[in-house]
Amino acid sequence: MSWDLLLAASTAFLMLPALITLGDDQARIPRWASGAMMVGLVGATAALFGLGAVFGATVTGVEVVLWGLVFWMRGKK
Fold first, then answer.
1. Are 45 and 60 in contact (CB under 8 A)?
2. 8-37: pLDDT as tens digits
3. How many domains does the chain have?
4. 3-state class of 52 per DSSP?
């Protein structure tokens, strides 16, 4: 197994909290927390693309979108 696929699988596992949060209408996440997560994941996505880890970067990019949805739909001030 390549390191890129291992990284993609690990990052995909980390999508669960965002998916659970989006599925729960009562869930609220502070915007500073979901925003900080997005900023960190954008940096990780850029670094992974730069390193040539395309699968890991793509999965991490999808996670950025999920946390963006959490920020928008489930954020609290």
1. yes
2. 999 999 899 999 999 999 999 999 999 999
3. 1
4. coil
- The H-or-E segment that residue 76 falls in is strand 75-76
Nearest partner of 42 among 30, 57, 53, 26, judged by Cα: 57
Structural domain of 16: 3-76
Residue 2: both structure tokens together:
């390549």
CA separation, residue 71 to residues 3, 4, 46, 55, 65 (Å):
30, 28, 20, 24, 10
| 36-70 tens-digit pLDDT | 999 999 999 999 999 999 999 999 999 999 999 99
Question: Residue with structure tokens 């390193």?
Answer: 51
Residue 18's contacts (CB-CB under 8 Å, 6 or more residues apart) are: 63, 66, 67, 69, 70
pTM for this structure?
Answer: 0.88
